[in-house]
Write a structure and sequence with these properties.
Blueprint (H helix, E strand, L loop, with lengths): L8 E10 L2 E7 L3 E6 L5 H15 L4 H9 L18 E10 L5 E10 L3 E9 L2 E7 L7 E7 L6 E7 L4 H8 L5 H18 L1 E3 L4 H4 L28 H7 L47 H4 L18 H11 L1 H14 L6 E6 L31 H4 E6 L5 E3 L5 H13 L21 E5 L8 H15 L4 E7 L12 E5 L2
Parallel strand pairs: 3-15, 3-16, 10-14, 14-15
Antiparallel strand pairs: 1-2, 1-4, 4-5, 5-6, 6-7, 7-8, 8-9, 11-12, 12-13
Helix pairs in contact: 1-2, 1-4, 2-6, 3-4, 9-11, 11-12
């Protein structure tokens, strides 16, 4: 294999000890679907991936775990007993393929009595590139050793125990020796792959916010992961209180919504070649955690789709103008999935007095991976336009009147046809977009859809994956939706 042409991608996910999983290794292809009955652990596997992705984006451990799982103890394997010091934890890891060859990252996380990363190992090219270990439980730091291959074989220094050491290496390694350059290449490869993940969970109840304040106008907190439409604080509250600084000492608890307590990864969001928004810069500055780490006080870009897809109309308004060819593909896919005629899909201005016109905040919260909703009075945004289907002689139909399955299909199809420049995510800006590929993570991808709709969505994913810029990791109830489709790997999990 010519690794020079490989875009960094997570090709293996390991759940050594996580929730109901022990010793599980999942091979990931460009298009992987997980199937299995309730309780088989499909969602847990996506959660493990998301925790790694958030850490790779520069988030603190407390925020990453809190947003995804609710509490650290929820990640501890079932039946795990504490040791003599009352400690319990979990272990996850992944392998990233790319120009540096296969690079493996493994984490050991202590969940009780205090959340911290107690061990990290980065390996590649037959070398152990980074190891960390907790040597003094009284200090908020681990002792790190990274490969140097110079006058001294390794360099040792403390790193904070609430951050992914791999993501901090570019700030600590000089790159003067061949060994240091190998460490930097491997670390960059892992960070690029992890930061290229977008968690997509279209929520029809939030997307229909026009009933009480405008479709897509939400008041979530910094990527909060509210699950019941009742607000974005939810599970994020515990994470915010436990956030710590990244400088080796404990920072003060962060009380502001959505703050991460320290610096994140490098750079603002960049676009992906060949997709909507190529080269478009995001609004998050260098060192931020992008969509996941955005502070609630910042006005978000309504032209970038959030995880819950609550701002779908504003994004459609942008993408329909920026790329007519891609928009035509979207309309054709929607035509196959929706009942009745579909001649077009577009965003139109809301009329004065129309429900939702001028509203800046509605019910619910954005899903995981999405930034905060706009502050009150934040311009046109999603509340200023609405999305409609052109039914030809039947007239226009507001998309919020579609069924749940149809509405989710429209949102997921749009995500597959776009890229980082159109999605609320934060890939590494220093790496050319042509050397990156986005991974869409969709738990319950076929939720609310019939088999015809789900199969059309998977077919669209196949076509986009063939272009090399999009990967998909999703869970489905019915694996038959992928039967006969080329390049789709279906992994069946047992409860």
């Amino acid at each position: 294999m010519n690794s020079d042409s490989v875009r960094p991608a997570v090709t293996e996910l390991r759940l050594s000890a996580f929730k109901s999983h022990r010793g599980v290794t999942l091979p990931l292809t460009p298009l992987t679907l997980l199937s299995g009955g309730s309780g088989s652990g499909k969602s847990s596997e996506l959660q493990a991936y998301e925790i790694l992705a958030r850490l790779g984006s520069g988030e603190s451990l407390a925020r990453a775990v809190g947003e995804v799982a609710g509490s650290p103890t929820a990640c501890v394997p079932a039946g795990a007993r504490p040791d003599e010091q009352g400690r319990r934890g979990f272990r996850i890891g992944c392998t990233v393929d790319g120009p540096a060859g296969p690079v493996s990252l493994d984490l050991a996380v202590q969940a009780e009595p205090e959340l911290r990363i107690v061990g990290e190992r980065l390996t590649g090219c037959g070398e152990t590139l980074l190891t960390t270990a907790l040597t003094d439980p009284t200090r908020p730091a681990v002792q790190a050793a990274w490969h140097t291959a110079g006058a001294t074989p390794v360099t040792r220094a403390p790193l904070p125990d609430d951050r992914l050491g791999t993501s901090l290496l570019p700030l600590r390694v000089a790159g003067k020796t061949a060994g240091q350059r190998l460490v930097l290449a491997a670390a960059e490869q892992v960070v690029v792959a992890l930061r290229s993940a977008f968690v997509c969970d279209p929520r029809p109840e939030v997307m229909r916010g026009a009933r009480t304040g405008g479709m897509g106008a939400v008041a979530g907190e910094g990527g909060g992961s509210g699950t019941d439409g009742g607000g974005g604080a939810g599970r994020a509250a515990g994470a915010r209180g436990n956030a710590r600084g990244a400088g080796g000492g404990r920072g003060k608890p962060v009380s502001g919504p959505g703050k991460t307590g320290g610096p994140g990864g490098a750079g603002a969001a960049g676009g992906a070649a060949g997709v909507w928004g190529a080269g478009r810069k995001g609004s998050g500055g260098a060192g931020g955690a992008g969509g996941w780490g955005r502070e609630a006080g910042e006005q978000c870009d309504e032209g970038r789709l959030r995880s819950a897809c609550d701002n779908l109309p504003a994004v459609l308004d942008r993408t329909s103008r920026e790329c007519a060819r891609r928009h035509a593909v979207l309309v054709a896919s929607v035509r196959e999935a929706c009942a009745g005629p579909v001649e077009g899909l577009r965003a139109v201005p809301r009329q004065p007095g129309e429900p939702g016109e001028g509203a800046a905040a509605g019910p619910g919260a954005v899903g995981r991976g999405g930034p905060a909703g706009p502050p009150a009075g934040a311009g046109a945004g999603a509340a200023g336009v609405r999305a409609v289907l052109d039914r030809g002689e039947l007239g226009e139909l507001p998309v919020e009147q579609l069924g749940d399955g149809e509405l989710r299909f429209v949102a997921l199809a749009l995500v597959l046809l776009t890229g980082p420049g159109v999605l609320a995510m934060d890939p590494v800006a220093e790496v050319p977009s042509a050397h990156q590929q986005m991974t869409v993570m969709a738990d319950g991808m076929d939720r609310c859809m019939d088999r015809r709709q789900a199969r059309e969505l998977v077919s669209l994913a196949v076509r986009m994956a063939e272009r090399g810029h999009v990967r998909l990791l999703g869970t489905v109830r019915d694996p038959a939706v992928a039967e006969g489709l080329p390049g789709v790997q279906v992994l069946h999990l047992e409860a």
